[in-house]
Known about the structure:
Structural class: mainly alpha
Number of strands: 0
Largest sheet: none
Distance between the termini: 68 Å
Oligomer: single chain
Helix content: 55-70%
Amino acid sequence: MRAEQERRYDDYERMTTGALMNRQAYHAKSLKPSDLFKRPLDTELAKKKAEELLEKTRHTSEWLSQFTIGNNRKSTE
């Protein structure tokens, strides 16, 4: 499983290099392959970071849910 994942990352890096070459053909701005794809260094660290972001998003959603948008009062005309 790990070898398959590494092979997939290798493919992504090759595709990134190809995309970089195509982009360089059309634009003069310098660009690095790492600007398009960065290989994850540690899957456990990435999973932990994703879980932390999910928790932060849930917390923010709960905080935002206390506010109402618009005017919910009925007009007394």
